[in-house]
Amino acid sequence: MSLYQKINAAQNGKDIKAYLDCLHEDFVFxxxxxxxxxxxxxxTPTLMSMMQSDALSFNNQRCLYxxxxxxxxxxxxxxxxxxxxxxxxxxxxxxxxxxxxxxxxTPIR
Length: 109
Description:
Layout: H1 3-12, H2 16-21, E1 23-30, E2 37-39, H3 40-52, E3 57-66, E4 70-78, E5 84-94, E6 97-108
Parallel strand pairs: 1-6
Antiparallel strand pairs: 1-2, 3-4, 4-5, 5-6
């Protein structure tokens, strides 16, 4: 099973543990809004809150490219606060896990 398949299954099943298992211990999320860096431990509460919400949804989610170094995804997301965005996610991989994630998003009205 590819890493994309694992993370996609974790997202769809709202399986926080399985999702976190896909992240490297040195994982960093780069916020597209501000460029700030968020560690795995600091990202975990936000991730848990989003995944526990019935309002979080992923639509037309697909992997555009994946190899041992990078995974690029695109989806339309609706967040718990009611906003929707088209989201491009670039995941940099190391040791079979995601070590860094950077996103770009366009609000959907």
